[in-house]
């Protein structure tokens, strides 16, 4: 919560300016400016715009937005790292997810909140941008815990399915690490699947990796699932909820993949909105980055976000046994559950 000791005009101006800077951080990352700043220390804005075929005037405005919030420092055409560059770089994909991937949702709050409008496809997000951001979110926050869990598996696996595969990066990394394995990515977003399939082909995975456009919540058994012995699912488990739907989905996955010895399920849990019953709840005075955007956005989409305790209460009924849970403290409270057939 913004301190009341700060001048109110300056404080509200900071809110406004931050709303502009948030998409600027995401865009600066995707355009390569943040990486060049970290590598080269200083960047000539005009030369950067020319080299990347960018509009020079717009690029100057983007840099100004970053300078206003101390991400960069500028001297005419030259920009250098600002006081907050390192932290902004570390959290860049969260800004991208919020402002670019979910911008179409947050720009329509006044429309989405009206019950008369909440039918059919009543909101829009950019699935390709979401996949782009989640790729880095996975690498930054989930991967260290994920690979520790993978290295600790008590049995070998030969075929892996990733539910909500997005960019396909997790599957490609798994196939790189385990050369004898095959993989299937399942995602409802057709554009993300096309991007993933093209990259998989470019990286030489050939017939080892394929992608299916389907809803992971309603999967039935297919012949190609018979040999799958490992399931993974990251950053989409909340789409299984509310509770009765989640239990049904877990049961369907149990039947669709009868030989899956392990299911690694990672997601971010609810700790702010109506989270009083969770021991991990935070107050409005101490909200971490990502939490407010993640929970507010999913509330508007009508997607129920479970607490950690609510997740732990569905596995047995869904046909799975939780062998272990690995907590990830940032960007909000995230967790990887290691499940096996009950």
TrEMBL record:
CDD domains: AdoMet_MTases. SUPFAM superfamilies: S-adenosyl-L-methionine-dependent methyltransferases. Residues 160-255 form the Methyltransferase domain. Pfam families: Methyltransf_25. It comes from the Eukaryota. This is Methyltransferase domain-containing protein.
């Amino acid at each position: 919560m913004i301190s009341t000791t700060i001048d109110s005009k300056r404080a509200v101006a900071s809110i406004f300016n931050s709303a502009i800077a948030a998409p600027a951080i995401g865009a600066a990352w995707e355009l390569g400016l943040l990486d060049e700043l970290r590598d080269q220390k200083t960047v000539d804005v005009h030369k950067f715009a020319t080299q990347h075929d960018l509009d020079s005037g717009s690029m100057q405005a983007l840099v100004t937005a970053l300078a206003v919030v101390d991400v960069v420092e500028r001297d005419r055409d030259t920009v250098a790292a600002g006081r907050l560059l390192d932290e902004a770089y570390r959290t860049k994909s969260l800004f991208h997810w919020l402002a670019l991937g979910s911008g179409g949702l947050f720009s329509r709050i006044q429309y989405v909140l009206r019950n008369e409008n909440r039918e059919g496809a009543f909101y829009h997000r950019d699935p390709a941008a979401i996949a782009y951001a989640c790729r880095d979110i996975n690498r930054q926050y989930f991967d260290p815990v994920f690979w520790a869990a993978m290295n600790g598996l008590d049995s070998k696996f030969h075929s892996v399915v990733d539910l909500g595969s997005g960019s396909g990066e997790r599957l490609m990394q798994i196939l790189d690490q385990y050369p004898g394995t095959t993989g299937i990515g399942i995602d409802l977003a057709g554009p993300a699947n096309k991007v993933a399939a093209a990259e998989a082909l470019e990286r030489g995975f050939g017939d080892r990796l394929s992608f299916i456009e389907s809803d992971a919540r309603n999967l039935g058994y297919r012949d190609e699932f018979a040999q799958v012995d490992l399931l993974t699912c990251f950053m989409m488990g909340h789409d299984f909820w509310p509770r009765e739907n989640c239990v049904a989905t877990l049961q369907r996955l149990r039947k669709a993949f009868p030989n899956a010895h392990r299911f690694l399920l990672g997601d971010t849990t609810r700790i702010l909105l109506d989270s009083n019953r969770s021991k991990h709840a935070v107050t409005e005075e101490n909200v971490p980055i990502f939490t407010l955007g993640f929970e507010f956005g999913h509330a508007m989409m009508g997607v129920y976000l479970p607490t950690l305790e609510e997740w732990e209460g569905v596995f047995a009924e869904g046909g799975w046994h939780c062998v272990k849970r690995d907590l990830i403290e940032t960007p909000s409270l995230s967790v990887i559950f290691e499940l096996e057939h009950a």
